């Protein structure tokens, strides 16, 4: 019997059109907390596992929009621990979850 590995914290890195940096640690089952000035979109450029994750840990980064969920990154410790992204999100319509 193999038990599922629990989801782990993920670090997200983004920038807005003003080229400012934003990073957040997002816990499993949580939504990223970020505010973007009205009329601007968020540029999600990278997702990484928290450096403190346990051996073999995995997690997914999900964008929820219009009632649908999209996995945009699948991360695994010891394998793909970071994922380069180039997503532009209107946070009035989309949510980032782990």
What does this structure look like?
With 98 residues, this protein is mainly β. It has no helices and seven strands. The chain has a four-stranded antiparallel sheet, with no helix packed on it. Strands 5-4-7 form a three-stranded antiparallel sheet, with no helix packed on it. The relative contact order is 0.29.
How would you briefly describe this protein structure?
With 98 residues, the protein is mostly beta strands.
Using the CA coordinates, give the radius of gyration.
14 Å
Our estimate of the beta-strand percent is over 45%
What sort of overall outline do the alpha carbons produce when their principal axes are compared? globular
Unreliable stretches (pLDDT < 50, length at least 5) are 1-6
State the major sheet. 4 strands, antiparallel
N to C succession of SSEs: EEEEEEE
Keywords:
single chain; 98 residues; three-stranded antiparallel beta sheet; disordered N terminus
Topology:
Layout: E1 10-16, E2 21-26, E3 42-49, E4 58-65, E5 68-76, E6 82-89, E7 94-97
